[in-house]
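Q: Protein A?
A:
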Amino acid sequence: MIISSWNTRGFNDLIKQQEVRGYLAMNKIEVFGLLETRVRMNNAAATSRLFSSYGILNNYSHHYNERIWVFHSTRLVTLLSSRIRDQLIHLELLYHVSNKVVHVSFVYGSNDADTRQGLWDELRQLANIVADWIVLGDFNIGYACEHTWTNKQDVGTRVWSKLDRVLTNAFWLVDFPHTQSPTKGNAMFILFAKLKIVRKQLIVLHKNNYSGLAAKVKQARESLETCQKQVQLQPLDIHLLTQEKYLLEKYWTLRKTERSSLIQRAKIHDINYNDAANSYFYAKIAIRKHQSIIGKIKDKDGIIREGMEDVNNAFVDYNQWLLGTPVATADLPPEALEGPRIQDTDWDSLCRPVEEMEIRKALFSIAYFRTGVMSKQANTTLLELIPKKPVVTSVMDYRPIACCIVLYKTVSKILFDRLKPYLPTIVGKEQGAFVAGRYDLMIFVIEDSPSVNVVSDSLDLFANMSGLRANPEETNIYMGGIRDDARELILRDPGYVEGTFPFRYLGVPLNEGKLNKGMFADLLSKVQSTLNNWSTHRSSYVGKIHLINTVIFGMERGAITLKKSLLGINASSAKWIWEIEVKSESVWSAWNYKYNIKTADFWAMDIKPYHSESWRSILIVRNELITRTGSIEGAKAPAAKISWARGVWNRAVLPKHGFIMVLAMQGKLATVDKLNQKGQCIMNRCILCETASESHQHLFFNCTFANTVWIGVL
């Protein structure tokens, strides 16, 4: 409930009336008190008509120049009773949102102490109210605290005072525990209050400057064309030339702004078209708008919910159950505290103050670093619902992505950076084998019921300690090569659903046996769909030509790209061979030594039919290395250092020049003799000296022109 009061010091001026209307609309005030209005009685009716959507009370009946006007939203509150005095208007209201009866008193105290005594008597009588009660206004009593009023006089006669206050009783604080003044509280709350004010101003700025861009662009173009026609009739008119330049800049600024706005609304990040393609942009915007509308959905209990309100409630109920339901947790057992720990001497490093001065200035006002409690303003996230599959029918088919605010992320990053150096000492390597950016967790166990029960009990223990429990709807058991009786026994105990092979992880199908081409059909279909998608782009004719040229150019480079990909695969296999040779401590190396190499010699073992494709490729690259070097020892030997490397790759050499030098040392520059060998050149003379055939040797050392350059450089 938003309640506000404002000492306007006169409310007859039309500009001030418009300011009040804007304030009520911008802040969505539900109950509002105007103090010291001084509206003459003959103007009261006309002034009231400006606020026809509000119920209005005033105290003309108790003061000749009325002091207080009260506005209340007839849509959100119902006036049950009122009490009007010369220094106070008291309202009894029914608040529709919470269906509660509240009492609101607006006060404008007299500046005479004897007269003000009547206000205290009225408030004492109201103090017996057994209901929610709030009192706010101008009490005309100043104390040594933050100033809220000034007489706006010169320096010598300027008076500052604290006159305005908001008071509540205990009942109000029970029913409205989060009642706060937008300018009071800790530093973080004040920051967020100011950010809300800025947000409202940004909305107004956007509305005034960036709404209706298409119409503004059209109007700017018409104005520019009109001015240019006048310039053709009067080409020497300086005023028209200046106006044409201004209108031209205005037109192109609006065009760029319109395009940027469309790109943001359509979420298009890869624009390779050479035209505005407005129809394409508007089509993408329409598609995104349609995708964001959910007409009906199944809730977490499987009941179909239709209509905007029911669909919203279904998502709120599910995500509150999934993320926002408090869960009682048990204390950690003593054995859970056994194992590696952070040393006591490291606590000073973990708890040290933030050293960077700019971060100190930005973050030390956050109360979290002093109290350890994150305020609700900073600990607030927006949940973005991402579909898990192309066709969604249930609220559980969406993955909630939490969009945290910048301050929350900053605090989390500081804490993470401090813990990062110590995590390897308390977390084993086998516990850190997770793929970044993935939410899935795979646990492998032996195919018997006791092993599965151990894992299930461990997950239950973790849930009891942390409150994080595996979602049964998202948890499956995959089994391969076991008997039916063992399968039934395993499925009976943990209560999870059996999944079917193949399933996908990181986009790759996993199967209990060997993979076949059919398992990659979906992946290949998506690639084919992406390649064919260009034909459906709603761009202009010029844009389509540009896109086709880009595709054709990419097809010409296809063979080169494929060759580079194959070279990358070989380089990756060679890297794994090096991991095996040096016996690195990685989990991958240890696994291969135990299950693939076992007691055999890696350099002498044969390729077996049961080897996986990845292991076969590593062994094939191993054989190529042995063949290329002539022996196993040659394959193991480190490559010889290139003597001229430092002369080419150093800070004094531009990368472009170094790259050309490397190609020259390897004889791979596109000289005339090499182009002739490929049939791509019909000339056979050096274009610099025209005395001999162009080759690497001639170009760099024998050419008379090159000798002149070398002499000048050296």
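Q: Protein B?
A:
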Amino acid sequence: MDSNSESMKSQADSSDIIYEFSCTPCSEDGKNTEAEYQCVDCRTFFCSRCLLFHNRVFKLHTILNKDSLASSHCQPDATSASKSILQDVCSKHPAEIIKMYCALHDLVCCTVCIAMDHRSCKGVHYIPDIASELSENENSTVAAALTKVRKEMNFLKSNKDSERLQAREQHDEIVTRIENITEQIIERARKLEKKSIDQVNAIHEKINGEIDIDIKSLDNMLRNADQTLDDIANVKQENEAQYFVKIKQAKQQLVDEEKCLKTISDRAVKHIVYEIDEDIETCLAEKEYFGSVSLVNKQMKVSFEDSYAVSVSTDQRDFYMFDMCEVEPDQLVITDYKNCKLKRLNKSLIVTECIDINGRPYGLCKTDQSELAVTLTWHQKVQFVDIGSKLSLTQSYSVGHFCRGICHIDGIVYVCCDGLDREEGPGHVRAFDASGCLVKMIKNDQNNQKLFSFPRSIAESFDGSKIFIADSEKGLITIDKEGKCLMSASDPRLIYPHSFCSANYGQKFVCGKLSNNIFLLDKDGIVIREILKGGKITKPIAVFYLRSQKRLLVTCFESDKIFAFHLTP
């Protein structure tokens, strides 16, 4: 038998041997080697070869020899072993398991890392020895930090989703502009084509007219010449006197006709020539694109513009302007709760009209191009208002509960009801059809838990598929049109959310009355960032964004002023 066969046989024989204690590192490498030593600190068994590598790193660990192993019975029990099993692989040394901890660098790593990078570090420990020493405080701190980071990542992810939607809408808008420019160019070219053809037609008709006159003159002269020749031939043999007359007349006719022929012959032949304007021809030929496209880093900037008093001489009470609505381009209607009025404002935020209303108007929304729906809180009803050249009250219907925020989606009016105190009862949302019949009441979530506490404001999403509710106590709540809760979240920076309004790209603005700030929300109603805090803003109760003017309008508790801010997207 050769030496290789003997070696293989030896390995096969050794693999069949069952040792009382096996070398741990060798076992991990698939070898069956008897352990002659154990490290008490590492709780690991070593053969003599593996112990040499161990001792180079851990010079102060306690080592037991083979005789001590049998007497001390220090092989770990199953329960202890299961608690000390380490499985994570070292990122730097994939063949090694993470077993060690360097207290100096607060780092877990493998034994190779210790040997190479942490040999001189103090406080190097075998992880199973110190795992039980992990403090509850550190555990809770790390868990809280991870929870916070996770929340921030969700916010950032939501922001990125909004950025994607914004980029898509910007793309679509630019493509539409390019298509419109193309249509305008084509339309302009068609107009130029028609005018140019008309211009050529006019010249052509003028030349044709001149030619027609010459041809008619020639036709007349030809007829006269033929007639004269016939007359001369007829009288030549019969009447010498008459023949003489005809000849003399013919000579005069020749003089006239030769003059006419000379005039026609001398007249220059006119050619129609059209020269294309080279500027037009080269304008598009020299262009590769309609314009230029680039990426620009933009962060919304908010700058205070001015404040505008909207009080009128008949006002007698403090001002609670809880809602605003754009009824025509650059025209607003606002609710003056305490003074029981609706006021119409022009582009300059000057009151141009006000109408007394029997009740305290809170929220308002458009139901179509010529009608507003207004909630009357204490009268517990929805009042409709015609918004023609003059504001005028029309029909109304009872809600039967204290009502505040209101929105209109696909023919259904959604109203925020109750929740202020025990007298009002639990907060909820009611839905009414066009005739004022209750079609839905939304109180609880899918787990039959109370969904609302004090719902203040309500608004629809950009596509009308979701409904956002600002609940002063529970925060921001998102439901679908059937009342299913999609999200309920509160942000410690947004205290007592009070009013919603639409922004660009399906986003929303919401104000916090007690936190004195305004936040931007994404299309799903998740907070993106705070855009305004303090300063002129004290207890904000209503926000509205005039998209055409890029102005954010804010009203505050017990103030007769509208604060206007200019937004730079």
